[in-house]
Amino acid sequence: MNLIVCIDERNGMLFHQKRVSQDILQRKDVYAYIKEQPLYIKKKSEALYEHKNIVVIDDFYKIAHMEGYCIAEEELEETLLQKMNHIIVYCWNRHYPADTYFKIPQNFQCEQVKEFRGYSHEKITRKVYRRNHDA
Known about the structure:
By secondary structure, the protein is mainly beta.
């Protein structure tokens, strides 16, 4: 499984259990990146995503062994993060209030960086991290 997360420049994900931001062009980039792969999301994200291969699921542990991508808009346990092959991080070019943060596990290394203009964000940076099985 591969994980997709969105954070601000300080790694903030949530503020009072709500996502810090969202962007329609970021979602289009997700669709182009994952192509025909399944996209697993939680119910609270369903209104934002319109990919044809969306699967709404309440527990990412149930699918951690499968192929595809899951979008996390909340903090994940370290044991689940270690089941991921890739972590795709979209970083907003702003600082938002946050009380939940995302930290890339140490055994993941960045293998790709792409910057693009969003709809409501001047710059969005996509970083793709691959799990280092040797670490």
